[in-house]
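ARCHIVE CARD
Drawer: 12
Card no.: 0347
Subject: one protein chain, sequence and derived structure
Cross-reference: see card 0346
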Amino acid sequence: MADPKVIGNQAPLVSRTTLNVGAQYRQPLPDDLSGTMRLDFQQIGRTWWDPYNVTSRDPVSLVDVRMGLEGGKWALSAWSKNLFDKKYNTEFSPGGFLWKALPRLYGVDLSYRF
């Protein structure tokens, strides 16, 4: 950008820091079954909305979880993204236009291998 006032500022819509940590546990169960649990944590650092670094979003912490059961050729799992239904904006534009993040999502996956 040609304006020298923005030199050295954080780029808009780009967080300087992010952190992703995941853990998974698998437990053998009777009858040739196995259970799994997975937890994922993501922290998105402060995000500036404009090149002048006037407006920003505070850091956001998100948790995803998945629990499943697997046997032979099939697998069944229940999951949630944004488990604690964190409300935040994913983007902001001049003029006050903003895009809200997706709310808590959840679902069930069933798979079968032929």
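Annotation on reverse: The chain has a mean pLDDT of 93. The chain has no helices and nine strands.
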